[in-house]
Amino acid sequence: MLSNTQQSYGGIARAFHWLTALLIATAIALGLYGASLPTGSDAQAAAAIRVFSLHKTIGIAAFGVALARILWALTQPRPAALHPDRRLETTLAEVVHWALYGAMLVMPASGWVHHAAQAGYAPILWPLGQGLPFVPQSAGLAHAAGLIHASAAWVLYAAIGLHVAGALKHALIDRDATLARMLRGVAAGQPGRHRAAWLTPLAALALWAGVIAAPVLTAAPADQTAAAPAPMPQTAQPGSWAVAEGTLDFTLRQMGAAVTGSLPRWTASIDFDPATGAGQVTVTIDTTALALGAVSDQAKGAEFFDTATHPNAVFAATIAPITAPHDAADHDTADGATHLASGTLTLRGVSMPVTLPFQLTVAGDSAEMQGRVTLDRRDFGMGASYPDEATVGFAVEVAIGLRATRTAPATGSGPAM
Ligand code: HEM
Ligand code: HEM
């Protein structure tokens, strides 16, 4: 029998039940194990990342199975309680069932939102992308979803504890067919004696509303601090432009999945003459402010940016307009670059020639630029103990965008400084 009756769980309901139990137990074990792992060294962080990638992948599988299970349950009769006369016990069992149905959805959904809102860290092991539509990158949202995930886990532990204790009580003390109904599909109970109680799903719904609302409400201030732009002090010089706002992001592949980090603190001293399209720029980047999701500390460590020894990176370059077509062809300027900034990037104490093609739009005393360049981490001695691309890719795409306003007229003759 595949379908339920008033007295028995059919094969499909039982398969769904035990598959859910297996996936959820595995997700819990991996979540707790992963959270207990040290992440001090790169090798330790890599091991923890593998555990969390597995945790997330199994959690999403549990989500899919739970959705299918719920759709199936909606089409099925629910077998009657075996002892409807024991009102308190029957009500408790039902509240726990609804709490478990809720946990099947809230646990993976909160984990997934946490993952999608936070740049980087252990990827889901699938080719379908790491983000979620309608979930923006936001530290505050990731934090709130993480709190929901952690507090919902406690509801899940309590519900599973009561659920398993109840099943064992039926099997060992009452010696009735409750467990056998779910294990082997035997029929038991008297249909018709059980009234549908509306209070039990409502009680579980209220419980889940509380679990979800509490972290969201308490995390709201954190969201505001996370969204506040980092101050970027600028020094105005004659003939110069001051950066009003800007972003400096980098994207790399971690275990094959693209992750984006940011360098929120940098200053730029720009001298540029829109009439000739020539100028000079020096960008000084505070590498200690680097953010790369949950692996920011690893990225700042000796193996990568080594911010303790090299707290700054500097890009000093000469700006020139792209005139000859071969300029554009040489630098992969498919996205409409109008200028080149050619100079030296000093990162981690290593200086390398770097040419950044960028698109510039000047309107009066305001200018906007967007540029991107792909670097190779090995050129700067980064990630020497990751000689292949399995964990961390070689290519790092740097994207810079800024809006600047003119603080003094250009000096005129040639590339000025
Ligand atoms: C070893 C662990 C588990 C055991 C021994 C167990 C046992 C049982 C038994 C015997 C029933 C039937 C109850 C009845 O007929 O009134 C049941 C129902 C149920 N179980 Fe479990 N279970 C386990 C784990 C889980 C887990 C991890 C979940 C989900 C997170 C879960 C969710 C449910 C739900 C929602 C029902 C009610 C199904 C319905 O009637 O709609 N169980 N379980
Ligand atoms: C049935 C599904 C799931 C269950 C039962 C589950 C359970 C858990 C548990 C027990 C922890 C450890 C909590 C702690 O003590 O720190 C955890 C952590 C975590 N889970 Fe899940 N999880 C599930 C699905 C997911 C999914 C789908 C994702 C992401 C796509 C995810 C992402 C995470 C992350 C990132 C952490 C670490 C949180 C932190 O360190 O703050 N989980 N999960």
Can you walk through the features of this model?
This protein is α+β, with helices and mostly antiparallel strands and 417 residues long. The chain folds into two domains: 11-225, Up-down Bundle (Fumarate Reductase Cytochrome B subunit); 240-406, Lipocalin, CATH 2.40.128. Helices cover 41% and strands 23% of the residues. The protein has eight helices and nine strands. It has an eight-stranded antiparallel beta barrel. A hairpin with a 2-residue loop joins strand 6 (339-347) and strand 7. The relative contact order is 0.11. The model is unreliable at 222-238 and 410-417 (pLDDT under 50). One protoporphyrin IX containing FE (HEM) binds at residues 17, 20-21, 24, 73, 78-79, 93, 97, 100-101, 103-104, 160, 163-164, 167, 178-179, 181-182.
Provide a brief overview of the structure.
With 417 residues, the protein is an alpha+beta fold.
The overall pLDDT, averaged over residues, is 85
What compounds sit in this structure? protoporphyrin IX containing FE
How many structural domains are formed by the residues?
2
How much is the radius of gyration in Å?
Answer: 29 Å
The structural class is alpha+beta
Order of helices and strands: HHHHHHEEEEHEHEEEE
In total, the number of strands is: 9
* Gap between N and C termini: 84 Å
Unreliably modeled segments:
222-238, 410-417
| Anisotropy-based shape | elongated
CATH topology of the largest domain: Fumarate Reductase Cytochrome B subunit
Main pleated sheet: 8 strands, antiparallel, barrel
The residue fraction in helices comes out at: 40-55%
The CATH architecture assignment of the largest domain turns out to be: Up-down Bundle
CATH class of the largest domain: Mainly Alpha
